[in-house]
Design the sequence.
């Protein structure tokens, strides 16, 4: 039996209904010219976005724009979604075979993609830590949007995965002041591990040059309007999905001529779009992961077979995590996998 015949099927995680996910078996094509077969080692759950998908909360008007690279199916479901995957190239062009790579690919034990979809993980970056590459990329894009300058006063609101990542990168800038702001006092230890000052929203210092909002809460965005200085800018990195947010725009926003600008990782930030590609941004992101402090973002692990239950526990709050890592035992097919229909029908949609 050849290697290609041995791996003619793969197992993938699909969202099949509101708060319903399952492992499905599907055909795995042989890699063609310029393509690679990748065996997954680890994938990470990007809790904020993936729970929006799990809860079938993607607004229909932006469903196409919010589709992930290599996604299959359509929102709300059935859909194969995810984008923090690390694996090893088993077949493909000779110069790629054996390399450990990152790919913006859903949770799946083996997959075939064009080699230009892969980012080589450099020496000094452990494969497990490399699942954070996509989140570091999001933070890099947000900082390219914000454009912090020497001596700036900056607040980051929301000490979750993205907010913590942004604060970690900002800690290397020559700022006058940087505060990571969160309502949960238990986040203080997390901030200290990142080398960043922590404070409760009530104690955060005002007159910021930039406020980066990552809490995905109305209260957090309201506080951002109060903390940013006159004519200052708020970079909004939260995705509210189908939730409505009401803001007191007749107060600080209008009187002090403030600005709110969105940052979304789907395209390179405007300030760098003409000089950086998505591949450049990913290569930068993975290179930053040589710093072992990033391990603080990896807050638990489970096997691939446990993934449907893990996603549900994250959704109902019985499992707390920043980035939960999924581990893929070699040459093992999850027993929970079920055959996948060849094509989703209108009834299954």
Sequence:
């Amino acid at each position: 039996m050849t290697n290609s015949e041995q791996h003619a099927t793969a197992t993938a995680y699909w969202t099949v209904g509101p708060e319903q996910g399952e492992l499905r078996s599907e055909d795995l094509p042989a890699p063609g010219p310029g393509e690679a077969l990748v065996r997954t080692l680890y994938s990470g759950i990007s809790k904020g976005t993936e729970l929006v998908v799990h809860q079938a909360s993607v607004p229909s008007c932006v469903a196409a724009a919010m589709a992930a690279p290599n996604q299959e199916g359509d929102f709300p479901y059935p859909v194969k979604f995810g984008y923090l995957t690390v694996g090893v190239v088993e077949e493909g062009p000779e110069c790629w075979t054996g390399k450990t790579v990152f790919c913006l690919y859903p949770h799946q034990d083996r997959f075939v993609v064009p080699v230009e979809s892969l980012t080589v993980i450099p020496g000094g970056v452990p494969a497990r830590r490399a699942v954070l590459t996509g989140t570091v990329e999001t933070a890099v894009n947000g900082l390219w949007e914000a454009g912090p300058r020497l001596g700036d006063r900056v607040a980051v609101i929301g000490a979750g995965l993205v907010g913590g990542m942004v604060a970690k990168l900002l800690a290397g800038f020559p700022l006058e002041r940087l505060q990571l702001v969160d309502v949960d006092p238990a986040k203080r230890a997390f901030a200290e591990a990142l080398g960043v000052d922590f404070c409760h929203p009530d104690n955060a210092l005002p007159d910021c040059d930039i406020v980066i909002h990552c809490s995905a809460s109305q209260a957090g965005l309201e506080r951002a309007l109060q903390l940013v200085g006159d004519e200052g800018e708020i970079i909004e990195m939260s995705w509210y999905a189908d939730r409505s947010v009401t803001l007191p725009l007749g107060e600080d926003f209008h009187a002090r001529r403030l600005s709110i600008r969105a940052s979304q990782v789907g395209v390179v930030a405007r300030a760098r779009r003409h000089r950086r590609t998505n591949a450049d941004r990913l290569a930068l992101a993975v290179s930053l992961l040589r710093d072992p402090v990033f391990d603080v973002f990896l807050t638990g692990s489970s096997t691939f077979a446990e993934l449907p239950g893990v996603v549900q526990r994250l959704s109902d709050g019985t499992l707390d995590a920043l980035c939960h890592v999924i581990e893929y035992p070699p040459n093992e097919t999850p027993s929970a996998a079920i055959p996948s229909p060849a094509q989703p029908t209108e009834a299954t949609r």
About this structure: The mean pLDDT is 93. The radius of gyration is 21 Å. Residues 133-146 form the longest helix (14 residues).
